[in-house]
């Protein structure tokens, strides 16, 4: 059990402790005062009796003996009863007792009033501070419920109440993060739909135009063949676009779990470029895999091959006939690096920081193939495996992409 108390409760308990001490001290003081009052009353009474006896001619020795006598006789009790002084005599008829009662009553009443006011004041002060604290917390929670997370509940002190406030603040942080995630998800979905719609407009418009041309000249075999090929290319572009967008969406949504295994870099590269060699040959380009020492990398083989394949496709898109693409790798005690270099057109400095953005196409390369998603997808895959991807390039100086992975622990 947590016995830590907040400052307000501690102060109130200290107040109660001091009040109890004050109550005990007041009781002691009242007791001393009552003893002194009784003593004074007895002295006054005894002086009056002595004075009266002496006035009646009683000798001092007899008076002294009488006052030092500690026993009572039946004659003495009968005499007091005869003059109206007994156990049943009302205190109002006994002047000294009546005075003592009044004095004691007034002192007790004043003490009780002062202590009661002090107790009520301290309790009311604690209660008002507590109410103010709860009101502030209630107002903050109400703002949380309305979606305003700009303020926090004060929990700078310790104790159960402030621990509760800290938990409420933590819950508000979680809700804020959830709300922001939902907003980002909605914004991402909105942007994704807008991007897909925008990118599909061109091939769809082209398909519509090709269909109309073929429909207008169904007997013209040359025209039908020409636009059938163009239709196929447009459909292929749409398929690549949709597949890339689906993959990026799954990566961004976190629905893909990378299954990391240890695999050799040579097998990873072979798997990535296997389907691209035919295209390279048809375009009179060459993909050269350097004969490097065998190195293992810890990654998801399928998705990492996808990333490498997209980078090689990008290199093929931006190289000309007779150019080549070199792939090599190195290993250090900390990481494995894969280098994918080409001797193509290179990347202009103003484009270098934008190449991983979705659908980004440099104004200098609008005539090249691709839809501008390959590098963005590659970066999402590498980043998702705690790797890094960087690029070095200059206009007409070729381009080198560097994929870095931490070595297996």
UniProtKB/TrEMBL annotation:
Subcellular location, in the record's words?
A: Membrane
What keywords were assigned to this record?
Kinase, Membrane, Phosphoprotein, Transferase, Transmembrane, Transmembrane helix, Two-component regulatory system
Pfam families according to UniProt:
HATPase_c, HisKA
What's the top EC group for this one? Answer: transferase
Report domain Histidine kinase positions.
195-409
What EC number is given for this enzyme? 2.7.13.3
Annotated membrane-spanning segments are 12-33, 106-127
Q: Which organism is it from?
A: Lacrimispora algidixylanolytica
Q: Name one GO biological process term.
A: cellular response to phosphate starvation
Alphabetical GO CC annotations of the entry are: plasma membrane
**PROSITE patterns in UniProt:** HIS_KIN
- The protein in question is named histidine kinase
Q: Name one GO molecular function term.
A: phosphoprotein phosphatase activity
The coiled-coil regions, if any, are none
Catalyzed reactions: ATP + protein L-histidine = ADP + protein N-phospho-L-histidine
Q: Does the keyword Phosphoprotein apply?
A: yes
Q: Which domain of life is it from?
A: Bacteria
